[in-house]
Design goal:
With 129 residues, the chain is an all-alpha fold. It has one domain. The chain is 95% helix and 0% strand. It has 4 helices and no strands. α1 packs across α2 and α3 runs antiparallel to α4.
Length: 129
Amino acid sequence: MTEPRDDAATKSLTDQIKAHPGIAIASGLALGVLVSALMPRGTARRLAKGAAAAATVGTEAGMVLARHARDKAEAAASDAVVTLHAAEKSAGAGLRRLRRGAAQAAESSTGKGLDLAHAAIRLLGALRR
């Protein structure tokens, strides 16, 4: 009887990570910093080497998720722009402003996705030092 509940929890967690990859990466890094602070120095140094490799993998995964989110946002914005362009012919200036806003939102979401990827790379660099 507990299996459907476990599946729902796993799906919910997966959905949250997909929806907020930056928060997932930041949470993992924060947890790593906390654990390393609680360990003796020698143990923390040995684990840091493995953590750097894991952070590299995490960064790559974050970049893939950021690119995927950017691509989805661009596709959605592109579809919205096409739809709005068709409606613009009949509606006039109000829809032209809305179309410009959709284009700006697409550009902003692309920038945010890339900013997230760059931040993850900077964090990895800081961890390696």
